[in-house]
Every structure is written in C-alpha cells, then in structure tokens.
C-alpha cells in the first residue's frame, strides 16, 4: 500500500504529473497539483515522481 502526498510549497505548477496517474489521484487547480482522490489508492508506479522537476511529490510505502 502506498500513500501519495504533494508539497504544494515545492510545486512549481508545471502540471506535468496529473495526466499520467493511472489511479486518477492527481488534479490541478489554482496553479498547483493536488491529490484529489483517496491518497491511499496510489499504486506506487512513480510516473508522477519521475516527471516532477521539483521533487514535490512523495510516495510512501505503508
Ligand atoms: S505513484 Fe502512480 S498511482 Fe501513485 S499518485 Fe503517482 S502516478 Fe498516481
Ligand atoms: S510535476 Fe511536480 S511541480 Fe509539476 S505540477 Fe506536478 S507536483 Fe507540481
């Protein structure tokens, strides 16, 4: 089980991460990415972290 979190202070608003999430957990509003679904539904695929230029996204295995 994985938990995804986004540090909005680190998010630069590039919107590179939101489209690629297979679990549709990432949304974009007010120039920042946000976790919009149940963060515990993260699959740990790292497609979001791999495209984030600022390291704002963290995936933790529980
Ligand atoms: S690791 Fe994969 S499933 Fe989890 S939030 Fe990122 S893109 Fe979505
Ligand atoms: S890829 Fe990183 S910097 Fe870009 S919108 Fe997503 S969290 Fe923010």
UniProtKB/TrEMBL annotation:
<feature type="domain" description="4Fe-4S ferredoxin-type">
    <location>
        <begin position="32"/>
        <end position="62"/>
    </location>
</feature>
<keyword id="KW-0004">4Fe-4S</keyword>
<dbReference type="GO" id="GO:0051539">
    <property type="term" value="F:4 iron, 4 sulfur cluster binding"/>
</dbReference>
<feature type="domain" description="4Fe-4S ferredoxin-type">
    <location>
        <begin position="2"/>
        <end position="31"/>
    </location>
</feature>
<keyword id="KW-0249">Electron transport</keyword>
<dbReference type="InterPro" id="IPR017900">
    <property type="entry name" value="4Fe4S_Fe_S_CS"/>
</dbReference>
<dbReference type="GO" id="GO:0046872">
    <property type="term" value="F:metal ion binding"/>
</dbReference>
<dbReference type="InterPro" id="IPR017896">
    <property type="entry name" value="4Fe4S_Fe-S-bd"/>
</dbReference>
<dbReference type="Pfam" id="PF12838">
    <property type="entry name" value="Fer4_7"/>
</dbReference>
<keyword id="KW-0813">Transport</keyword>
<dbReference type="InterPro" id="IPR050572">
    <property type="entry name" value="Fe-S_Ferredoxin"/>
</dbReference>
<protein>
    <submittedName>
        <fullName>Ferredoxin</fullName>
    </submittedName>
</protein>
<keyword id="KW-0408">Iron</keyword>
<keyword id="KW-0677">Repeat</keyword>
<keyword id="KW-0479">Metal-binding</keyword>
<keyword id="KW-0411">Iron-sulfur</keyword>
């Amino acid at each position: 089980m994985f938990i995804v979190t986004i540090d909005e202070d680190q998010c630069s608003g590039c919107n590179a991460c939101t489209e690629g999430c297979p679990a549709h957990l990432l949304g974009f509003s007010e120039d920042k990415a946000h976790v919009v679904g149940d963060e515990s539904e993260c699959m740990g695929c790292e497609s979001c972290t791999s495209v984030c230029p600022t390291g704002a996204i963290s995936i933790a295995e529980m």
